[in-house]
Amino acid sequence: MLTLNNISAGYNGVDVIKNISFNVEGNLAIVGPNGCGKTTLLKTIANILPHKGGIEVLGKPFSKMKRREISLNIAMLSQQPSIYFAYSVFDTVMMGRYLHIRGRISSNPTKQDKEIVAESLAAVNLLTEKDRNITQLSGGQLQRVFLARALAQEPKIILLDEPTNHLDLKCQIEIIEYLKKWAKQENRIVVGVLHDINLAIQLSEQLLVMKDGKIQASGNAGDIIAKGLLNQVYEMDVAKYMCDSFKKWSEIF
Amino acid sequence: MKIKIITTVCVSVIAIIAGIAIGSVNIPPSSVIYIILHNVFGTAIPEHIPVAHVGIISSLRLPRTLMAFFAGAALSVSGAVMQSILRNPLASSYTLGVSSGASLGAALVIFLGVSLPFLPMLTLPILGFTFGFATIFIVMAIARRFDTHMENHTIILTGIVFALFINAITTLMFALFREGTERMVFWQMGSFSMLGWNTVHILAPVVFVGVLFVAWFRWELDVMTFGEEQAQTIGVNIKRVKLLLLVVAAALTGGTIAFVGVIGFVDLVAPHVVRKVFGSAHRIVIPMSAVVGGTFMVIADLVARTVTAPVELPVGAVTAIIGAPFFACIYFSRRK
Predict the structure, then answer these.
(1) How crowded is the C-beta side of A55, counted as CA atoms within 13 Å?
(2) Which residue in A54, A161, A162, B219 has a CA-CA distance of 20 to 30 Å to B254?
(3) Chain A residue whose CA is closest to B283
(4) pTM score
(5) Nearest C-alpha of chain B: how many angstroms from A75?
(6) Chain B residues with CB inside 8 Å of A96's CB?
């Protein structure tokens, strides 16, 4: 569904990610230390950054797609932007319908657009807050609003950059579970950058491990952890840290 | 929302009628309405209305008030656009050097006596507009040279630095050519005096088309307030839309100040008031900025020509005197 072939990209002529190639058919969690190029990789897939190499979505190369077609297939939940102007929750999520609305002569939202926005808000448990001003929301609520906006785009692929930032534990699990369910319907996929290894494994058993702008390992999470590949990347014994954490939990209960 | 919009439009109509009715000769509002209807639809004027009143309104106050309204609308909409696409509540065409460029154009005409062949009367507005408009292109070209992504902070900083550079040239001309200083100072402070129907006929269609054009991009403006990366992932062709809107906003400001001089604060105050009262959605912000900005300017012009009559104050000074404390109240009350 999503294929990257020898992709390099970066900022001001300096490549941050180098020669990245992979093929994704199901959900994928990307992990790696700070500054390894995870966000750059997501921005490249979202066609925000210019890149060298080839990207294909549903078998069609980016080079033969317009921005409109790419955005109809790929939505991205970025790390939270600064909010300068006050919009209602409903209006903010309606912005996800931009390409659908602009595709019509009237350029006005239809009843169907409003229903999709309401469904997206219901999916993130924010339908009752639809008339609130987004500047009055907590970080977690705001994150859910932007997720609802990505869902309202009705993409085939959702890219998530630290989607659970600002979310409490219950919310993190609910969002991940919802996204897994969303992906299962109609054969869609979620590609998420996550710092929390536990959540990464919950999102997908397929891991992509990055370091210094390159793929260090990819494949089944169990295999990667068993081979100690995460330890090399994080320069610490990840499995031991996890086991110690569970031991503390078991001592408490 | 509907009630707020209807109330604002009613206040605007009342302000326009007051702007036409009040002056050195006060004319009853009913007479004003009859004379406006006569001018627009050609209806008969009742016999009890003096011919002098018809002359005052038709030839002087109606074009002046309309000019004030269109100028206020253009500056306000331009400010709203600049603030949204540059994601900076204090941005305006002035920040990007449009007024500085226009001032340099005006200085060439006033100090050096530059005159266009065949169009000597329109030399100042044409050069003012051309220089103001050219400034934004130069600013964009320089910004693009430094930063191919044309990030907002690069554009704003380039605009500020370039505006300072142009202002320095104008200041040099002030120092070198004393003759014409008074005329230049008054032009820079803005005025609607001496403007007739011919200027309304030029500015009105420019403002009308410009505002409609900007209103068409209401969705893009909404999305762009969340940042360019977000707008791109949602599907906005950011480079094209940003360039188009910056050019149209600069044209609205440049076209206006070319005729009426540099009038500040409307572009800052009106969009802020509108966002506070009506929310940030541009389907409302753009048309209501035009209405509120136009109304604000009509009131400012009314104050400028009545409080110290028969001496007329520069309208730019009045907008700043009313606008600065008003803006401070709005801004700090929102922060609370």
Answers:
(1) 23
(2) B219
(3) A108
(4) 0.86
(5) 6
(6) 234
Please check whether residue B259 is in contact with residue B122, taking contact to mean a CB–CB distance below 8 angstroms.
Answer: no
Q: Give the type of residue at A8.
A: S
Nearest CA to CA, how far is B212 from chain A (Å)? 14
CA of A95, closest CA in chain B: separation in Å?
Answer: 6
pLDDT score of B250 more than 90: no
CB-based contact, A132 to chain B, within 8 Å: no
Interface contact A83, partner B, CB < 8 A = yes
Dist CA A98 CA A95 (whole Å):
5
Q: How far apart are CA A177 and CA A171, in angstroms?
A: 10
**Segment B99-119 mean pLDDT:** 84
On average, the pLDDT of chain A sits at 86
Instruction: Say if the Cβ atoms of A91 and B232 lie within 8 Å.
Output: no
- Better-scored residue on pLDDT, A246 or B83: B83
Nearest residue in A to B80, CA atom: A85
Residue B285 has pLDDT above 90, yes or no: yes
**B34/B38 Cα distance (integer angstroms):** 6
Rounded to 5°, angle at Cα A86 from A85 and A87 = 115
Tens of pLDDT, residues B289-330 = 999 999 999 999 999 988 887 888 888 888 888 888 877 777
Bond prior to B310 in cis (omega within 30° of 0): yes
Query: How far, in Å, CA of A122 to CA of A100, rounded?
Result: 20
Closest partner CB to A87 (pick from B220, B230, B279): B279
Indicate the residue of B88, B222, B229 with minimum beta-carbon distance to A95: B222
Strands A2-11 and A14-24: antiparallel
Instruction: Note the helical H segments in chain A.
Output: 38-45, 67-73, 89-94, 98-102, 111-123, 139-152, 169-184, 197-203, 221-226, 229-234, 238-252
Residue B9 tokens read as: 């439009």
Beta partners for residue A214, in sequence order: A211
**A71 touching B (Cβ < 8 Å):** yes
Interface contacts (A, B; CB < 8 Å): 74
**Per-residue pLDDT at B327:** 74
HSE-up (13 A, CA, CB side) for residue A211: 11
pLDDT tens digits along B208-240: 999 999 999 999 999 999 888 889 999 998 888
Chain A contact for B84 (CB, 8 A cutoff) = yes
Q: Provide CB contacts within 8 A for B106, sequence distance 6+.
A: B124, B127, B128, B184, B187, B188, B261
Q: What is the mean pLDDT of residues A79-100?
A: 88
Nearest to A146 by CA among A202, A197, A239, A82: A82
Residue A200, classed as helix, strand or coil, is: helix
Res A160 pLDDT > 80: yes
Facing A85 at nearest CB: one of B220, B233, B275: B275
Residue B98 touches chain A, beta carbons under 8 Å? no
Is the separation of the CB atoms in B80 and B280 below 8 Å?
no
Q: Does B91 touch chain A (CB under 8 A)?
A: no
